[in-house]
Design brief:
5 helices; EC 3.4.21.89; single chain; alpha+beta; serine-type endopeptidase activity; about 30% strand; 23 strands; 4-stranded antiparallel β-sheet
């Protein structure tokens, strides 16, 4: 007698409902958009005038992650763990923050001098780097350079650096009679004061009682106004502030350099920019330059600041080997930019990408019919 062996039949797969199809499509779209944003390009907008006139308030940019390579997330993962007692009679669930290693994928190029760069601001130490405010500035010096600013001119390794065409300086423009003619000339030359209604500069009185306007403009615009009969004087205004490295730990602690330099925004340095693999002899003369590198950016444990020197686990550090490259970033509106002159170096692992294209530009002070700055659309960023 022969036996027939039967195989169980599987029920036909149920077709997806319309709701499931929409949900799957939405999930795919979200994942794809997230990967594209993380690995290729991301859109940003300019909210402040620190990069004018190179970039204007209301410019919408594409920032390339491909140039320098996308970087893995730096936010610690919250991993659920299970703890069992020695008797096996009770279970307790809890979570732990685990910091995964940060890694940058290969990119098209390295960070170059004069690149316009988006990065996570270094001084918001209460957050992981990728949850901090994003800044956009120009890279004025790369790892291994020595930066100096003399009378507003950047010098790199003793030689004059490139001056961006949109570079702005802040002036007090003294006039005898603030009137509509002056305002019309300011408007015609693109001089804007964003915290005033309509962006119109307001006349103010200087300490000596003379009237005029505090304006930020390019050197060419300043030269134009110097030649006008209604302008009596153009005076460079440089804000007074305590800068890095006299302030060793911007907004985070009271750490101050043991050897103050008293640099200013227009006369700054010389300052060496740390390079990966460089071993530095530490002393009271330079410890403030490297304090945040050792204490924050390179995740060393047990670091403290005592009497103008860096200590680890109670022992004074006399040398340190740098683990990554660093950069100096400055705004093109040089007197109206909180940048590396205030808070120091930008670590390589804080760099997001290179600003490459203005795809839209909206004038916040214009009426509806003149809102779009047509001449700036699809401009390559230099």
């Amino acid at each position: 007698m022969s036996l027939l062996q039967t195989t169980p039949t599987t029920a036909p797969k149920q077709p997806k409902t319309k709701t499931r199809e929409w949900a799957d499509s939405l999930i795919f779209a979200v994942v794809a958009a997230t990967l594209i944003r993380w690995a290729t390009f991301e859109a940003y907008t300019i909210p402040s005038p620190s990069m004018e006139n190179s970039l204007l308030v209301g410019d919408y940019l594409f920032v390339s992650k491909l140039h320098y390579g996308p970087i893995t997330p730096q936010t610690p993962l919250q991993v659920p763990l299970t703890h069992q007692t020695i008797w096996g009679t009770s279970l307790k669930s809890y979570s732990e923050l685990i910091q995964l290693p940060t890694y940058r994928l290969p990119g098209f190029s390295s960070i170059q001098r004069n690149d316009v760069v988006v990065f996570h601001v270094p001084h918001e130490s209460q957050y992981p780097a990728d949850l901090r405010t994003n800044y956009i500035k120009r890279c004025v010096a790369v790892a291994g350079d020595t930066l100096e600013i003399r009378n507003g001119q950047v010098y790199l390794n003793g030689k004059p650096g490139v001056t961006p065409p949109g570079l702005q300086t802040t002036y007090f423009m003294q006039v005898d009679n603030p009137n509509d003619e002056v305002l019309a000339a300011l408007r015609a030359h693109g001089v804007v004061e964003y915290d005033q209604p309509g962006g119109v500069p307001q006349a103010v009185a200087a300490a000596d009682g003379k009237f005029g306007y505090t304006i930020s403009c390019t050197a060419a615009t300043a030269d134009y106004f110097r030649k006008q009969p209604y302008v009596k004087k153009m005076t460079v205004l440089e804000p007074q502030a305590q800068l890095f490295p006299d302030v060793a730990d911007f907004r985070n602690s009271e750490a101050m350099s043991a050897t103050p330099r008293n640099w200013s925004l227009d006369n700054y340095g010389p300052l060496p920019i740390p390079k990966k693999g460089q071993t530095i002899a530490l002393s009271p003369a330079n410890a403030a330059i490297y304090y945040k590198i050792v204490a924050r950016y390179e995740h060393n444990a047990g670091i403290t600041w005592q009497n103008g020197m860096i200590y680890q686990d109670g022992k004074m550090l006399t040398s340190y080997t740098v683990k990554q490259n660093y950069y100096m970033m400055m705004g093109d509106n040089r007197h109206n930019s909180e940048d590396s002159r205030f808070w120091g170096f930008v670590p390589e692992d804080h760099v997001v990408g290179k600003a490459v294209l203005i795809w839209l530009s909206l004038d916040p002070n214009a009426d509806f019919w003149h809102k779009i700055r047509w001449s700036r659309l699809f401009n390559i960023i230099h």
